[in-house]
Structure formats: C-alpha cells, structure tokens
Specification:
Radius of gyration: 17 Å
Number of helices: 0
Largest sheet: 6 strands, antiparallel
Shape: elongated
Distance between the termini: 13 Å
Helix content: under 10%
Order of helices and strands: EEEEEEEEEE
C-alpha cells in the first residue's frame, strides 16, 4: 500500500517549487509521481504533420520524487507524514501521524 496515491493533494517540501500545492495525477513508478502544476518544464517539440503536431516550445509536467512531497492535511493547513492503521474489521487505512485521524480517500 502506497502512502501517496493518485488523486491526493500534496505540498512540495524541497526543490524549485517548494511550498506549492497540487494534486497527484499519475504514479510513474514506486518513487516518482506527476503532480499537476509542479515541475513544469519547457520542451522543444519537432513538428509532425502525420500526427498533426505543431512544432514549438511546449510546457510539460515532469515527474517528481515522492520524497520531495508531503500529503496535505486540510485540518492543519500543512504537510503531514502518513502512517497505517488496521481497523477492527481488518481493513488497512492511512492515517495522519500528527493527529491520528484517517486520510480521506
């Protein structure tokens, strides 16, 4: 079970975009994820008339390492660490470390 999943709101704690918030759109692999509006770079795209792609400079969102983001806790308004807890019925849920309350999925 991953601590940060697709659809979670995260806050960046290190790097060029430190302090910005965004939503996780894709999990690239175990260590990298794509966050909307974070780590946006300009790439030079070559035109391809067969695919209908125009050339020029395109802004693209690149993956960021998950160690550089924290799950955003709306109760405190800050980033928070995530732990796991097993409920009485045997289901495993994510909880915020600071308060112990369950993460809203």
């Amino acid at each position: 079970m991953q601590k940060i999943r697709k659809g979670d709101e995260v806050i960046v704690i290190a790097g060029r975009d430190k302090g910005k918030r965004g939503t996780v759109s894709v999990r690239v692999d175990d260590a990298h994820l794509v966050v909307d509006g974070i780590n946006v770079v300009k790439k030079h795209a070559r035109p391809n008339p067969m695919k209908g792609v125009t050339g020029g400079i395109v802004e693209k969102t690149m993956p960021i390492d998950q160690s550089n983001v924290m799950l955003f806790n709306p109760a405190t308004g800050k980033g928070d660490r995530v732990g796991f807890k097993v409920l009485e019925d045997g289901t495993k849920v994510r909880v915020y470390r600071s308060s112990g309350e369950q993460v809203k999925a």
